[in-house]
Write a structure and sequence with these properties.
Blueprint (H helix, E strand, L loop, with lengths): L7 E6 L6 H11 L4 E6 L13 H12 L4 E5 L9 H6 L6 E13 L2 H23 L9 E5 H4 L4 H5 L5 H11 L3 E14 L3 H18 L1 H5 L6 H16 L3 H22 L4 H4 L2 H21 L2 E4 L2 E5 L5 E3 L3
Parallel strand pairs: 1-2, 4-6
Antiparallel strand pairs: 3-5, 4-5, 7-8, 8-9
Helix pairs in contact: 4-11, 4-13, 8-13, 10-11
Length: 322
Amino acid sequence: MSYPAPYEILFSVESRKDPAYPLIQKLTHLYPGVATRIFVGEDLESPEHLGPNPKMNNLAESYRQAAHDYVLISDSNVRVSKSYLLELTSHLDAKTGLVTSIVSGTHTETPAAFLESIILNTLYARFVALSHQFHKPCVVGKCMLFKKSTAKRFGGIEVLSRFLAEDYMAGEAMTKLGLKIKVSTLPIPQVIGKYSFNDFLKRHIRWGQLRKKHAPLLFALEPLTQSFFCFAIGALGAWAFNGNSIPYILAGILFWFILDGIQFWKLSRFTRSQFTFFPFFWMFRELLSFPLWITILLRNHVDWRGSRLKLESGGLLVNDGL
């Protein structure tokens, strides 16, 4: 990290069996000049259980013992540049409560991982950017920089642990305090790696449940943002006028595909040969969108980090007990 001020890196793992644990130990020995500490949940005499959110529980001890007021929550599967801290902190001022960033999916090793990268680099990146432009910023949990003293005003991570979307609720809480949410101009790469189709479905069902509980009206309108559904409605209108809807469908889908392709190319780190698979996976994503929306509509629980959790109104989490 190219950062002039003192900082520390706190690693939070649930168990010594975590594959990351020996790697973290090796890193701490390789860089003794960097202040680092490892917090292992199973080693704590009385580990804090803040609420149903497993991520917040995992962070509880490191958050409590953090030496500095500014904290940056960063997930283990992101890879950042040396200027990462400088870029994020450059957005801080007295009127800013939280700084976040757009995530780009990279380093895919399976078909499901490549499909995930397409969604991250097109649909979600576009949503984060547009919501920021309309002054309704969407906080991304993989990158959250804020002050503990400010978060304490709304109850800190103890309050956030009650929700599925701790990142979204952190943004809402900061906004209610009259503070701004800023999105960094530097996208952070998320290493997707090996990813099964089941992992893909669980993640997007979880994210969909979040949208359904926090913004039910917008969730109800989501099919109108899906290209095939949208152009099917347009085709009906075209057919009603002149009976020939095929050119309108093809032109609309092609235009949508080109825009997504440009955005994907700019955010991703794929080779030209990998990029040739984009049209096929993009088409599959579009075909999957509506069935996935129906699945989310009919479910009220999520599977997350080995726990089955039920969602209540407003995104509150409770143990399902199943």
